[in-house]
Amino acid sequence: MSSYSKKSCIREILIKRDGEKCAYCNSLEKDLTIDHIIPTSKKGSRYGRYNLVLACQLCNCKKGNTKIQSFLNKNNIGARNKTILKQIERIRRAKNEGREVKEVIIEEIRKNKSMGLQRCAL
Ligand SMILES: [Zn+2]
Q: Least buried of 2, 22, 36, 66, by fewest C-beta within 10 Å?
């Protein structure tokens, strides 16, 4: 697959998952870029979907190589955007526990399912 079609394929997946908006400021601008939450220069995954979000040009530019947490704090993004916080929390937990992010997500889904079942049983 060419790198262009790989990119547009990833873009489609991210739009389906998060909607066609900037993950940081919710801007609906047309020229959304694909941003690595943890930059690849800081050992963030290049293709792991959990590390990818759509970001507007301005946010992507402002973020640059800033640590994600200081970028969020500085721009007061966490208060407006819970989805991104959840994603970062997953990455952090996986790192702390020396696990794959995928495992953490699967565990979350399992937990939510069993909680759902408990609720039904009550
Ligand atoms: Zn933005």
A: 2
